[in-house]
């Protein structure tokens, strides 16, 4: 391996595609006849397969969580701050698995894949996917990889919700769940933001009822708007103030409606970049999965009852300036876990970076994360 | 072993559920988990302590004892609620005590006895706020904002209809002396109480 990557990086990694030929029953009542999953793994699975960690991605994430795809890569995977040799999820100790979820647009079967029944892209015909569907798919992936029980399932935001759902749905198949910057259910305000994002996409003239691929186009303006709105909710007032303040792009008012302030320029850039690389139907699908998530619903809306299903231990972390899934959401979750007599540790990490904080380096966050993961590693190294 | 553990341990039934308010680095809970198979949680706000608890495998929940959030736990969730050397540092010790006995069947409280003769003498002679090895802070930076004596505490329990099941007073090294048992408010440095409704 070339020496150009940092020593605490997993280095060059390669995704692979796994085909699953068996039909999958979905929460919406429909069935997918077969599907592909794109997966990356880091580290080595030990002999009794006790060191496997599943990483679940958030709204716009994918299988590329750590390392680089080529030597020319400018940026490593999305959770490279936390995955690698000597990092909290230490690839010298753990076998790390990350996949692009079903419905995604980074290679796993999703709305932009070809529907075998019609020979055309699924588009709007792709079934609506829930977090539970993902959990079920990930369980099949675990079967395929020969992993009976994960040492841990970890994720931030929507990824944290998958970790939570794992604990409730497959209590015997994981020993720890790390639920970071997540929530046991979205509030009306959260859903409202998602709805604005979806309307931005569906009202774009290029949307064509979701069949934009067949029209050789894409609702990029809508997707860009959706991302701009979303992006605002990932940051905080303080962090935006610190980063941009009221800074002007050209030092003087131009008395017009084009980009005047730096923050506008930044949002447009982020939105544009995103709209070129992400599928609009996937965005619709992912935001719906967020909206629907509410594991308490199956237990008479009693979150404690839902948590009573779990057997694993939990680490829950929130970030002080996160207003998308504010610390109160995590506290409610923790209270339900205490009520259900689950083993849980909880910390609210001080950070100015809003919801995005779970992706960013922060000494306290990294230290606590590492302490918990080391504890997990101690369990299987002791047993050997 | 932490010196106060030997007084607290006999009061905790094997396999019981324990909440430790201001659990520090988790020593007490780790010990009770190992020796008494208890389950439970520590509450703590200090990041280094939280990390240490996690390292030891002690359940720790970040929470400020001064906030009302304790109230979000359900009534009688625990068998025993412990608060060692923290009562004098909370904003409302009376409410903290009430909260302990709402959350648990029994409470165990330890605090520095401000009635200890040396502290009385310190103030009498020097005319300044007492300091000692148990209370090393100066008046302006001390976390101990509600110091009390053995008699103060017992008066509070009486007013709140809280029953004192056991009481021990010890010296700084957590030794129980015959003379301090005789005159606890004057001769005890640290008071250890077991209370219930």
In short:
Helices cover 35% and strands 14% of the residues of chain A.
Walk me through the structure:
Chain A is α/β, with parallel strands linked by helices. Helix content of chain A is 35%, strand content 14%. Chain A has an eight-stranded mixed β-sheet, with helices on both faces. Chain A has a two-stranded antiparallel ribbon with strand order 2-3. In chain A, β9 (152-156), α2 (158-169) and β10 form a beta-alpha-beta unit. In chain A, α3 runs antiparallel to α4 (220-234) and α4 (220-234) packs across α6 (262-277). Chain A is globular. In chain A, 50% of the residues are buried. Chain B has 197 residues and is an alpha/beta fold. Chain B has helices at residues 5-8, 27-36, 47-56, 93-103, 117-126, 150-159, 178-182, 184-187, and strands at 17-21, 39-44, 60-62, 78-84, 104-112, 163-170, 190-196. Chain B is globular. The A-B interface holds A 315, 331-332, 334-335, 338-339, 341, 343-348, 364, 367-368, 371-372, 374-375 and B 17, 39, 41, 47, 50-51, 53-55, 57-62, 69, 72-74, 77.
Key features of this structure:
heterodimer; A: alpha/beta; eight-stranded mixed beta sheet; 35% helix; globular; B: 197 residues; alpha/beta; seven-stranded mixed beta sheet
Figure out the total of helices of chain A: 10
User: Greatest chain-chain interface?
Assistant: A-B, 21 and 20 residues
Helix content of chain B: 25-40%
Count up the helices of chain B: 8
What is the mean predicted local confidence, pLDDT of chain B? 92
Terminus-to-terminus distance of chain A = 30 Å
Structural class category of chain A: alpha/beta
Oligomer: heterodimer
Give the strand line-up of the largest sheet of chain B: 3-2-1-4-5-7-6
Order of helices and strands of chain A: EEEEEEEEHEHEHHHHHHEHEH
Strand content of chain B: 15-25%
Main sheet properties of chain A: 8 strands, mixed
Total strands of chain B: the figure is 7
Q: Portion of residues in helices of chain A?
A: 25-40%
How far apart lie the N and C ends of chain B? 30 Å
Write down how many β-strands of chain A occur, each being a DSSP E stretch of 2 or more residues: 12
Which shape of chain A, going by the Cα principal axes?
globular
Report strand % of chain A. Answer: 5-15%
CA-based gyration radius of chain B? 16 Å
Gyration radius over CA of chain A? 21 Å
């Amino acid at each position: 391996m070339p020496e150009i990557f940092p020593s605490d990086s997993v280095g060059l990694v390669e995704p692979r595609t796994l085909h699953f030929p068996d039909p999958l029953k979905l929460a919406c009542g429909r069935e997918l006849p077969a599907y592909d999953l794109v997966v990356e793994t880091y580290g080595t699975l030990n002999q009794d397969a006790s060191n496997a960690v599943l990483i679940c991605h958030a709204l716009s994430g994918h299988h590329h969580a750590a390392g680089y795809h080529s030597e020319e890569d400018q940026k490593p995977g999305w959770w490279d701050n936390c995955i690698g040799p000597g990092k909290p999820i230490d690839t010298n100790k753990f076998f790390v698995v990350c996949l692009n979820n079903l419905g995604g647009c980074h290679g796993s079967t999703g709305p932009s894949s070809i529907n075998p029944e019609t020979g055309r892209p699924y588009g709007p015909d792709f079934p609506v996917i829930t977090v539970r569907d993902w959990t079920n798919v990930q369980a099949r992936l675990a079967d395929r990889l020969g992993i009976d029980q994960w040492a841990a399932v970890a994720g931030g935001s929507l990824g944290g919700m998958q970790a939570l759902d794992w604990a409730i749905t497959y209590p015997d198949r994981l020993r720890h769940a790390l639920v970071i910057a997540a929530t046991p259910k979205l509030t009306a305000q959260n859903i409202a933001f998602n709805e604005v994002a979806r309307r931005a996409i569906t009202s774009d003239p290029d949307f064509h009822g979701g069949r934009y691929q067949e029209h050789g186009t894409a609702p990029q303006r809508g997707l860009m708007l959706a991302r701009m709105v979303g992006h605002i909710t990932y940051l905080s007032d303080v962090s935006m103030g610190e980063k941009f303040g009221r800074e002007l792009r050209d030092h003087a008012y131009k008395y017009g409606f084009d980009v005047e302030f730096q923050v506008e320029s930044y949002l447009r850039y982020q939105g544009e970049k995103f709209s070129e690389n992400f599928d609009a139907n996937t965005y619709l699908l992912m935001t719906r999965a967020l909206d629907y998530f509410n594991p308490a619903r199956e237990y008479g809306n009693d979150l404690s009852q839902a948590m009573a299903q779990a057997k694993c231990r939990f680490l829950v972390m929130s970030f002080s300036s996160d207003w998308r899934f504010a610390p109160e959401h995590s506290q409610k979750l923790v209270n339900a876990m205490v009520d259900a007599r689950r083993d849980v540790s909880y910390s609210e990490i001080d950070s100015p970076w809003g919801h995005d904080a779970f992706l960013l380096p922060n000494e306290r966050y990294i230290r606590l994360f590492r302490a918990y993961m080391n504890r997990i590693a101690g369990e299987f190294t002791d047993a050997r | 072993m932490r010196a106060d553990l030997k007084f607290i341990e006999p009061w905790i039934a094997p396999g019981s559920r324990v909440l430790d308010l201001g659990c520090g680095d988790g020593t007490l809970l780790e010990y009770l988990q190992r020796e008494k198979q208890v389950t439970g949680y520590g509450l703590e706000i200090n990041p280094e302590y939280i990390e240490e608890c996690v390292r030891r495998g002690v359940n720790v929940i970040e929470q400020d004892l001064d906030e009302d959030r304790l109230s979000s736990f359900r009534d009688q969730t625990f068998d025993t609620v412990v608060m060692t050397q923290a009562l004098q540092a909370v904003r409302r010790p009376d409410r903290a005590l009430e909260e302990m006995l709402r959350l648990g069947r029994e409470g165990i409280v330890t605090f520095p006895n401000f009635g200890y003769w040396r502290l009385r003498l310190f103030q009498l002679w020097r005319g300044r706020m007492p300091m000692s090895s148990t209370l090393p802070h100066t008046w302006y930076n001390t976390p101990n904002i509600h110091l009390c004596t053995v008699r103060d505490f017992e008066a509070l329990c009486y007013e709140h209809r809280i029953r004192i099941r056991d009481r021990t007073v010890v010296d700084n090294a957590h030794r129980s002396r015959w003379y301090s048992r005789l005159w606890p408010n004057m001769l005890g440095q640290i008071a250890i109480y077991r209370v219930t409704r």
